[in-house]
Amino acid sequence: MENLHSLSEYKISAADRYTSFLLPILLIIVDYIVIVSAEQLAFVIRNFVIPNGGTLHISWFNFWIVFPLLYLIFINIEQLYSRRMQFWKLIEKLFYASIYAIVSIILFLYVGQIASSTSRLFIILFGIISFLFLIFSRYIVKKIFERFGVLQIPILIIGAGKTAEILAKCILDDVGMGYKVIGLLEDNNVEDGILKKFPVLGGFADAESVIKKTGVQNLLIAAPGLEQVTLVKLIDAVQPLVKSVGVVPNLVGVPMSGVEIESLLNEKIMILYLKNNLVKPVNKLLKIFFEIILTVISIVIFSPVLCIIALLIYLDSKGPIIYDGKRVGQGEKEFKCYKFRSMYVNGEEILANYLQNNNDKLQEWQIFHKLNDDPRVTLVGKFLRKTSLDELPQIFNVLMGHMSLVGPRPYLKNEIKEMGEAKNIILLAKPGITGYWQVNGRSDVSFEERVKMDCWYVKNWSLWIDLLIIFKTIKVVINKTGAK
């Protein structure tokens, strides 16, 4: 633990002190340049694609002032100049800001009675290009800041347990966060792990002294085990000394998507309203519509691949090309889940003999319900599983309404008991071809962890999370991460 009299080396610099002021200004300048560049590119592409439609003319006032200003206003409304957040959340907010800005530009054109002279293709291209440019520019800018250690908000983490470790990992791994951890406050010894990278500047009781000596203005309290009285006392002590205090509550596993907060002033308590997004009819219809469109497109794209795989399976081993094992779906209803056959037809017999002769593999099977080197898998089957191509026929399950593109894992009937109370949550949704657990470990996570991940997905569902999982699935499959 650091000596409180030698904290001068951790004192916040003058440049760091003004990060909260300088960064928004710089981001506004970068965003303006990016938006104008997107306008220019959309303008060039439109005139190239429709040469006979006449050269498009846009007034300099609209081009340089109105259109960029509307974009900047909505980016600011989405708090992208005032808040730090994970990069996937930043992309989501940029998406909504782009939609609102384009709609506002269209309304402006109609109100100004100049819509007829403005190309629809230009507006569409402008919306798409500006969204992509904004994502790319934000990533590059934040990477540069991270690389050179500039315009990163200094932060002090109070706590050094498991929660603090998860928090620190997020700060280090996610380019969107933009925090610089100057140290920790912890009463106990810090275990080996990611937190060892940061100095322990004192204990909880030293918080006020450390803040005054370092000048840090942002705190994150990551000690959910603290008693309520102790936590309130700590917050009361540090809040007058800093600009912001973040508290990680003891609410692990509680759905956080779309949470609404209400304060009861007289009673001095806070109520969290937790929404069940999947229950809303509008969300259900939106998810179904979105997935049917993607599924039909997938069938058209992958039809040649389906035929080639079917031929390889036929030539590799005896048995049917499609395996239609029963799985448990929404509402605990069983359905036939289609997959390319990747095992020998007498697979269960092979497995029983293998586990009987290999006791070390029995434990692996009991924990993961999978084997790293499964003897039941055929030669072609190993390739299909490694690339996840064995699950392609499930796109027909989506069309039949048994499955979703994204959802919990399709569980076996004999696994339902092991799911415990979690089954009541997981079986609210249709199982998915891909899902949260598939892109966060796949076969590398235990059955218990898999169930927790599926619970988290159902409780926090949103269309944006589905899109994120689909993109991450592509990355995982290409890298073959966690595949067995």
- Strand-pairing-aware structural class: alpha/beta
- Radius of gyration using CA atoms only: 27 Å
Shape: globular
Task: Give the terminus-to-terminus CA distance.
Answer: 44 Å
Helix percentage: 40-55%
Q: Can you describe this structure?
A:
The longest helix has 36 residues, at 281-316. This protein starts with 13 loop residues before the first helix and ends in a 5-residue tail after the last helix. The radius of gyration is 27 Å and the shape is globular. It is of the alpha/beta class and 484 residues long. The strands form 4 sheets. It has a 5-stranded parallel β-sheet, with helices on one face. A two-stranded antiparallel sheet has the order 6-7. Strand 1, helix 6 (162-173) and strand 2 form a beta-alpha-beta unit. It has helices at residues 14-17, 19-49, 60-77, 87-111, 120-148, 162-173, 207-214, 228-238, 281-316, 347-357, 359-368, 379-387, 394-399, 416-419, 423-426, 447-459, 463-479, and strands spanning 153-158, 179-185, 200-202, 218-221, 244-247, 260-264, 269-273, 322-328, 334-340, 404-406, 432-434. The mean pLDDT is 86. The chain has 3 domains: 18-148, no CATH class; 152-250, Rossmann fold (3-Layer(aba) Sandwich); 279-342 and 377-479, no CATH class. The protein has 17 helices and 11 strands.
